Amino acid sequence: YAICSDQTIQRLAKVRPSTKARLANIEGINQ
What predicted TM-score, i.e. pTM, was given to this entire model? Predict the structure, then answer.
């Protein structure tokens, strides 16, 4: 997940808003 770019995250967020929160959570763990 850490490899995902902002564009990819934004695209996924548009498809599934709930995914944005999950990815943000995962990014926080990777950082």
Answer: 0.29
